[in-house]
Amino acid sequence: MPLLKDPPQVPPPSWIRPPPEQHHAPAHDWQTAVPDTSLFPPPPALFSGFDASPANNATAEEAEAGEAWCARYPLLPPAALPAAALAALRAHDIAPVPPAGFPGRATQLRPGRWSVRTGPGTRDACILGYPPLYSAREHAGAPRTVYYEVRVRAGSSANVALGFAALPYPSFRLPGWHRGSLAVHGDDGHRYVNDRWGGRAFTRPFAAGATYGVGVVLGAGGAGSVFFTRDGRREGGWDMHEETDAERDLGVFGLEGRHDLSCAIGCFEDVDLEVVFDPAGWMYALKE
C-alpha cells in the first residue's frame, strides 16, 4: 500500500503574506542641527581688489619704475634719532618734507600744523614726514598708536592720499602702491597696502571742506590695525594681518613695527591741504 504523503503546506485562499519586516533608521531633524548661517561672520574679501582705480591710474611704466626703485633701495633698519628729532617727535612738531623738484609749497603755520599746496599739472608725489611718527627704537615692545589729520580746503581737488610708509619710499609714487606703505586714496576712496593696481573698496571719495585722519595701532607683539576718520568720526578700518589673496596681495613687510614709519601724504594735480600733527588741533579725540 503506498505511503500517503503529507498534504502540501499551502496557505488558505484568504491568507495574505505579511509585508517584510522593515528596519527604519531613527529620524533626524537636520534643520535643528544646522546653525543659522546668517549669524556666521562674512567671508573675507579675498577677491575684492581692483585691477585699476575707477578714478585715476598711473602708467604701467611708472609702476615698474617704482618697483625697480624699491628693489634698488631696500628698507632701512630703524634709525637712531638724534636728540633734536626725539624732542620734535615728543612735541608733535613733525615736518612734511617735499621731494626734490616738488612744484608745490609746504609752509609751517605753527608747530604741528602745516599748509601744503600744489598746482595743476603736478605729477604723482609723496611727501614724507620727519621725524617718523613711529620710531622702532623708541616705541617697539609697547602698544603704540600713530595718527594725523588732513583738512582738504575749499576749492581743492580730492587728489590726495593719506597713509604711512617705511623708509625709503619712492617720492614719485603715491603711498600704498609699494612695499612698506599703506594709504587711503581720496580720488576713489580705496585703500591700498603694497598694491600698485586698483586697491580695495573702502570709503567714499574725499570732498573739499572735510577733514580726514588715518592711524595705525601697533601692539607690543607687532600685530597691527589701521583706522580712518572723517570729520572727527571713525569711518572704518582693517586688520593689518587680515586674510588675503595669496596670488594678489604682496604682504605688509615694513608695517609691522620693526621699521620706522613716517606719515606719507600723496598728491597730484592741484591740492590745498592743512596737515595737523598736533593732537590739540585734531577733530578726532584719540584714545590710546
Short overview:
The protein has 288 residues and is mainly beta. The protein contains four helices and 14 strands.
At the fold tier of CATH, the topology name of one domain is Jelly Rolls
Global Rg: 32 Å
Q: Which CATH class of one domain is shown? A: Mainly Beta
Arithmetic mean pLDDT: 85
Give me the side-by-side strand order of the main sheet.
1-4-13-6-7-8-9
**Secondary-structure content class:** mainly beta
Distance between the termini: 117 Å
Low-confidence stretches: 1-5, 27-35, 43-47
Give the helix proportion (percent range): 10-25%
How many beta-strand runs? Answer: 14
In this structure, how is the largest beta sheet organized?
7 strands, antiparallel
SS strand fraction: 25-35%
What does this structure look like?
The protein is mainly β and 288 residues long. The chain has a domain at 96-281: SPRY domain (Jelly Rolls, Sandwich). It is built from four helices and 14 strands. The strands form two sheets. Strands 1-4-13-6-7-8-9 form a seven-stranded antiparallel β-sheet, with no helix packed on it. The longest helix has 13 residues, at 60-72. It is globular. The model is unreliable at 1-5, 27-35 and 43-47 (pLDDT under 50). It holds the Pfam family SPRY.
Keywords:
288 residues; seven-stranded antiparallel β-sheet; mainly beta; disordered N terminus; 10% helix; Jelly Rolls
Task: Lay out the secondary structure.
Layout: H1 30-33, H2 60-72, H3 83-90, E1 95-97, E2 105-110, E3 113-117, E4 125-130, H4 136-139, E5 144-152, E6 160-165, E7 181-185, E8 190-193, E9 200-201, E10 211-218, E11 224-230, E12 233-239, E13 262-267, E14 272-276
Antiparallel strand pairs: 1-4, 2-3, 3-14, 4-13, 5-10, 5-14, 6-7, 6-13, 7-8, 8-9, 10-11, 11-12
